[in-house]
Amino acid sequence: MLDRKFIVENVDLVQRNCVHRGLQIDVAELVRNEGLRRDKLQEVEELNRRANEVSKSIGRATNDTEREQRMEEGRRLRAAKDAAQQGHDLLEVAVLETQRRIPNLSHPDVPVGRDDNANLEVRRGQHEIRSFEFVPRDHLQIGDHLDLFDFEAASRVSGHGFYYLRNDAVLLELALQRYALDIAATAGFTLTTTPDLARNEILEGIGFNPRGDETQIYSVVGTDLSLVATAEITLGGYLAGQTLAVEQLPIRLAGISHCFRTEAGAHGRETRGLYRVHQFTKVEMFVFCEPEQSDAMLEEICGLQCQVFDGLEIPYRVVDTATGDLGGPAYRKYDLEAWMPGRGDGGTWGEVTSTSNCTDYQARRLQIRFKKPGEKGTQFVHTLNGTAVAISRAMIALVENHQQSDGSVLIPEKLRPYLGKDRIVPK
RNA sequence: GGAGAGGUGGCUGAGUGGUCGAAAGCGCCGGUUUGCUAAAUCGGUGACCUGGUAACGGGUCCGCAGGUUCGAAUCCUGUCCUCUCCGCCA
Question: Which CATH superfamily, name and number, covers A116-424?
Answer without folding.
Answer: Bira Bifunctional Protein; Domain 2 (3.30.930.10)
